[in-house]
C-alpha cells in the first residue's frame, strides 16, 4: 500500500450524504482536506452541503468559529454528481446503507475509478470488513473507519483491518484519524467491534430487569444516574438512539456470535419496535415526548413507617458500613450473631437475591430486606424485599435509609439493579479483552468516548473490586442458572490473583 494518508494535499471522497456521510466530509474539510461528497440520490449531496453550511453558521454565531475559517471549510467541500469524479481521491470513505450487498457493489465500482494505491474505508458499524472487502479485486487496500454519530462532535473512530488488509493499512488509517482530530482505537474485525459489542450490557440487561417486574424504566434510570453516576439511564439512551436501531444491533450481534447467551436480544423490545414505540423520533418510547413525561407509579409501593429503633445487620460484605450509616440515623445496630426477637434484619448480598440470603442465614423473610452496598452509599439507595417481607418492615427500612438520600424499593432479584448492570458491563468488557478484539486500555477509552460511560468497563471493575464483581456474577449465575451470567476467564483469573482487569496476558 503506497498511499500516504497524511499528505497536506490529500483529497478525501465520501460516498453517502446522509447524517454520517456529511458529518465525515465536514470533519475532513475542517482538518484542511479537500472533501468530495457523492450520493446516489440526485441533489442529496448539495442538500448535505447546505446543512453543513447552516451548522457552521451556528458555530460562528456562538463564537466557536470565525467567519473566515467557516468560509475556508465550505470552500474545501464539493458535491460531485458521478462516481467518476472520485478518481483524484487518496482515500474514499463509504457511508451508505448498512447492507452487505450494497457495500460490496459500491466497492467494486470504486475500484474501477480510483488510483491503484488509493485506500477504501467502510464506515460499517456492524458488518465484517473482511466480508465487505471480499468482493474486491484488491481487498488489501480496504479497511474500516467506524465514525460515531454525530461525527463532528464524537471524538472516537474505530479503526479495523480485515483479514486480507495490507499490514500497513491499519497504521495508515490510524494516522489519518489523528490528522482529522479524532481519537483512533484499533479493533479486530469482529461483530460490533468494541463499542457496539460493549453496549450489549447496559440496555439489554436493563430490559431484562423491567421485563422481570423488578423495577420500572424510570426507577432503573434514576438508580443508574443517581447511584452509579451514569449521565443517561439505559431507557433514556434507548429512546435517544431509537428502539429500532438498538434492536437491529442486538439481533445482529447475537446471530453473528451464533447465539451467545450474553447477547440475547429482548423480546420486549421487539414488540415495542413492531408497535412503533421507537423513542424520541416517534415522540413515544419508554417515555412520552409529546407533552409532560409521565413518571408512573413505583413498582413497589412503600407504606410510610417511623425510623426503627433497633436493627440487625448481617456481618458480610458492606454490612459494617451499612451498620455505621444506620447508627448515624439513630438506629441501634447489632452486627452478626443471632437477631433479637422482632428486630428488623438487613442483608447485603452480592449477586444473591434476598430470598437466597434469608434462607442461607436462617432469617425470618417477613422482617428482612436487602440493601445494595456494592458502590457504598453514594446518591440513591436500593432496598430489595423478599416475596414475604411485610409492608411494615419495608416501610421502616426505607425510612431508616432515606434520612439523607432518596431510596428506591424493588422486587427480589439476583443482583439488585445496579449490581446487575455494572457486573454485566464489566463482564462483557472483559470478554472483549479475552477475545483480543482490542488492547485493554483501548477498550476503556473506546467505551468512555463512544458510549459516554463514567468509566471504561475494566477500570470500572477495578474500582468496584474484581473479587466483588466476580462474586456478583457467580451469585447471579447460582440463583438463576442462566449462562448469560457466567464470568469470563479474563475476569475470574484477574480477580483471583488480585490484579487489575487491565493487566494483559
What is the total tally of β strands?
Answer: 14
**Which strand-content bin applies to the residues?**
5-15%
How would you name the oligomeric state of the polypeptide chains in this document? single chain
Give the C-alpha Rg.
26 Å
What would CATH call the class of the largest domain?
Alpha Beta
In percent, how helical is the residue content?
40-55%
Mean pLDDT, all residues: 95
> Helix/strand/pairing class, anyone?
alpha/beta
DSSP helix count?
Answer: 20
Task: Strand order, main sheet: write it out.
Answer: 3-2-1-4-5-6-7-8
The end-to-end span amounts to 32 Å
Gross CATH architecture of the largest domain: 3-Layer(aba) Sandwich
Shape: elongated
Low-confidence stretches: none
How many separate domains?
4
At CATH level 3, the topology of the largest domain is: Rossmann fold
Q: Report the biggest beta sheet as strand number plus sense, adding barrel if it closes.
A: 8 strands, mixed
CATH superfamily of the largest domain: NAD(P)-binding Rossmann-like Domain
Structure write-up:
The chain is of the alpha/beta class. It folds into four domains: 11-189, 3-Layer(aba) Sandwich (Rossmann fold); 197-282, N-(1-d-carboxylethyl)-l-norvaline Dehydrogenase, domain 2 (Orthogonal Bundle), CATH 1.10.1040.50; 310-410, NAD(P)-binding Rossmann-like Domain (Rossmann fold, 3-Layer(aba) Sandwich), CATH 3.40.50; 418-497, Orthogonal Bundle (N-(1-d-carboxylethyl)-l-norvaline Dehydrogenase, domain 2), CATH 1.10.1040. The protein is built from 20 helices and 14 strands. It has helices at residues 19-30, 44-61, 67-75, 100-111, 129-133, 169-179, 195-198, 202-211, 217-226, 234-241, 243-256, 267-274, 319-328, 354-361, 391-401, 418-434, 440-451, 457-464, 466-480, 489-497; strands at residues 11-15, 34-38, 77-79, 91-94, 119-122, 142-147, 156-161, 183-187, 310-313, 332-335, 344-347, 368-371, 381-385, 407-410. The strands form two sheets. An eight-stranded mixed β-sheet has the order 3-2-1-4-5-6-7-8, sandwiched between helices. The protein has a six-stranded mixed β-sheet with strand order 10-9-11-12-13-14, with helices on both faces. Strand 11 (344-347), helix 14 (354-361) and strand 12 form a beta-alpha-beta unit. Helix 19 (466-480) packs across helix 20 (489-497). The protein is elongated and about 85 Å long. It starts with 10 loop residues before the first strand and ends in an 8-residue tail after the last helix. The model has no long low-confidence stretch (mean pLDDT 95).
